[in-house]
């Protein structure tokens, strides 16, 4: 009998994943990850992990499976939280959920599971695993989108490797959320009606500004409003010597200065803000709401523009450096000067957009057919062909 360790989070998705695996005849163990107890940084007044671990225990008892709690808070602090602070300090916006999957669930947690003698690790993600036989007889694993397009979580798993996928099962990938809740209710699982968790992976609700301010010192600076007709947005040259020159041009962000607009307010630190952000600026009196179009952490200035159609929010092309480029199936990796038509997204739940990948010396350009709003450094871009996520990278 194959042994599977399920990451029981105390939510309905992982509960049903464990139930289905037991039904399918696997030897199932429930493992709850405790990822936080650093009193020097308060996450929230609430303590959701206690309630979650209790619910996970009740589910395990109901299913008649062994249950353990594993403390990964030291690894979580080092690999996720410290990384987050460092990224924000540099004016980038990290994605902790993607990192948590790559660094914690499918690395540290997976190693613990394998040490317990598990053949597989299973999670309650809405995605699927495919298998293709290579010419030499070896197996290549595919990361496929979940059947429930509204809940598809493949984006969060965009950094998984062949080694990780080989040992992973996604039991609810073929189901929709309503079907998952139905199974939980029919089997009297305590999590059947539990709301989906919000906030940081396996930690719970976090007010990000409060969280960041505990480690990153507030630093008063100015907010500048840049008009729509600023010189940066005038039509540039149309003729390019070659494709790479054109890509470089479209990937460039405007470099703003104080001469580009008017000072309209003050802020407590440029590193607390991200491109596309609207909340927290506290500047009134504008016809349309202000959105952050750029942050300058060196000079501690936030540049803003009125309305969500402000040209400063839009760019057609982004760049991923080689050392931050990842192919789920390395066989598909582009060679230099290679290109590929794909569908891509720059954030979770964004509808997939048509794009072309161009591999150059040092990295890869993702060139969208249409300009994208709020392309943000530090976030992940993921690209697909049909229903397969084939690669991803950190936006430079």
Description:
With 396 residues, the chain is of the alpha/beta class. The chain has a domain at 3-213: Rossmann fold. The chain has eight helices and 18 strands. The strands form three sheets. Strands 5, 6, 12, 13, 14, 15, 16, 17 and 18 form a nine-stranded antiparallel β-sheet that branches. Strands 3-2-1-4-7 form a five-stranded parallel β-sheet, sandwiched between helices. The longest helix has 20 residues, at 96-115. The model has no long low-confidence stretch (mean pLDDT 91).
List the helices and strands and how they pair.
Blueprint: E1 3-7, H1 12-23, E2 27-34, H2 48-63, E3 67-71, H3 73-89, H4 96-115, E4 120-122, E5 127-133, E6 139-145, H5 162-166, E7 168-169, H6 177-186, H7 208-213, E8 221-225, H8 243-251, E9 262-267, E10 290-296, E11 301-306, E12 314-321, E13 325-327, E14 339-345, E15 353-360, E16 363-373, E17 380-385, E18 388-394
Parallel strand pairs: 1-2, 1-4, 2-3, 4-7, 8-11
Antiparallel strand pairs: 5-6, 6-18, 8-9, 10-11, 12-16, 13-18, 14-15, 14-17, 15-16, 17-18
Helix pairs in contact: 1-2, 1-6, 3-4
Rg, rounded, reads 23 Å
Beta-strand residue fraction = 25-35%
Separation, N- and C-terminal Cα atoms: 46 Å
Oligomer: single chain
Q: Please, how many helices?
A: 8
> Uncertain regions: pLDDT < 50 for 5+ in a row?
none
CATH class descriptor name of the domain at 3-213: Alpha Beta
- List how many beta strands DSSP finds: 18
Structural class: alpha/beta
Which sheet architecture does the biggest sheet show? Answer: 9 strands, antiparallel
- The CATH topology annotation of the domain at 3-213 reads as Rossmann fold
**Shape field:** globular
* N-to-C order of helices and strands: EHEHEHHEEEHEHHEHEEEEEEEEEE
CATH homologous superfamily descriptor of the domain at 3-213: HUPs
Helix residue percentage: 10-25%
Would you identify the CATH architecture of the domain at 3-213? 3-Layer(aba) Sandwich
Task: Give the integer mean of the pLDDT values.
Answer: 91
């Amino acid at each position: 009998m194959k042994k599977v360790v399920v990451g029981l989070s105390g939510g309905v998705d992982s509960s049903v994943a464990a139930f289905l695996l037991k039904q399918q005849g696997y030897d199932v163990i429930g493992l709850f990850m405790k990822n936080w107890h650093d009193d020097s940084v308060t996450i929230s007044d609430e303590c959701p992990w206690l309630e979650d671990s209790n619910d996970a225990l009740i589910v395990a008892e109901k299913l008649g499976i062994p249950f353990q709690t594993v403390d990964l808070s030291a690894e979580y602090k080092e690999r996720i939280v410290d990384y987050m602070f460092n990224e924000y300090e540099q004016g980038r916006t990290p994605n902790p959920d993607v990192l948590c999957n790559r660094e914690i669930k499918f690395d540290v947690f997976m190693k613990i599971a394998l040490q317990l003698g598990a053949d597989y690790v299973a999670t309650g993600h809405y995605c699927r695993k495919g298998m293709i036989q290579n010419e030499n007889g070896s197996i290549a694993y595919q990361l496929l989108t979940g059947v429930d397009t509204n809940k598809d979580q493949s984006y969060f798993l965009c950094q998984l490797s062949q080694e990780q996928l080989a040992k992973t099962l996604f039991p609810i990938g073929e189901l929709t959320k309503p079907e998952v809740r139905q199974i939980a209710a029919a089997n009297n699982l305590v999590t059947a009606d539990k709301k989906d968790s919000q906030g940081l992976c396996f930690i719970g609700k976090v007010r990000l500004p409060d969280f960041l301010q505990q480690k990153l010192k507030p630093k008063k600076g100015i907010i500048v409003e840049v008009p729509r007709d600023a010189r940066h947005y005038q039509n540039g040259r149309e003729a390019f010597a070659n494709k790479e020159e054109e890509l470089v041009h479209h990937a460039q962000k405007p470099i703003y200065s104080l001469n580009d607009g008017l000072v309209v307010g003050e802020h407590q630190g440029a590193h607390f803000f991200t491109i596309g952000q609207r909340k927290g600026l506290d500047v009134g009196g504008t016809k349309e709401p202000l959105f952050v179009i750029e942050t300058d952490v060196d000079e501690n200035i936030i540049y803003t523009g009125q309305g969500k159609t402000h040209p400063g929010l839009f760019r057609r092309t982004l760049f991923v450096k080689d050392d931050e480029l990842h192919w789920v199936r390395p066989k598909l990796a582009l060679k230099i000067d290679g290109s590929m038509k794909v569908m891509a997204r720059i954030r979770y739940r964004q509808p997939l957009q048509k794009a072309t990948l161009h591999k150059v010396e040092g990295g890869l350009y993702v060139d969208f057919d249409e300009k994208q709003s709020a392309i943000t450094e530090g976030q992940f871009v993921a690209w697909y062909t049909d229903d397969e996520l084939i690669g991803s990278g950190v936006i430079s």
